[in-house]
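Quick one: structure for this chain?
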Amino acid sequence: MEERKTTVVRIRALPCDWWKPDGSTSAANAKSFEPKLVNATVVLRWDGAPKDAEKEVVILDTDPSTDPFAGFDGYDDRSLIENTCNREAKESWFLEHHPKRSEAGMRVHAYFVFTCMALVTAFRLHQQQAEEAESRGEETGIGRFRRQLEAANRDKVIVFCGDHFGIFRNWEVFLLVGVSLRERTLMGESAQTVLARCRARRANNS
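Got it. Here's what it folds into:
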């Protein structure tokens, strides 16, 4: 296991004379202006990189935590969203090229793009799991699915009556024709319970 060292320093309550909740303002020049306070996280070393590899990264935030990694972890999460979601959606999935220049058109296009991204991600994960299973000698793919489907339905039969048909378990058919099955009878099964599950009732022969 490789260990990488990250060194960060937390600086709290820095007066910020250009920031306010709704953006920058010219009111910063007024004598009555009270600057907002922000926090800074200075990354002195990132994942064991040499100290002279690049300039220090400074992350500004309003998180009240005193934990020096609060701003760093928050930025890390944000970078994942920006790099693995927003950038890919814009560059690879053409999120910016919406078909209709309206709010509804853009909203539908964004939903469609992110849905496709989620489906592709799920498919890639499934494909990766299948490849790992194959490398372990396990059976995968459509052949395994068909065998599983066959095993789940091997005791089912289809019964036709005129223009109608029904799919039953083989023991249900025996119960419907009047054959007594001790094991199923002990489980409370009968022709009436089978018909009840099918939302049907026994025809009156009289």
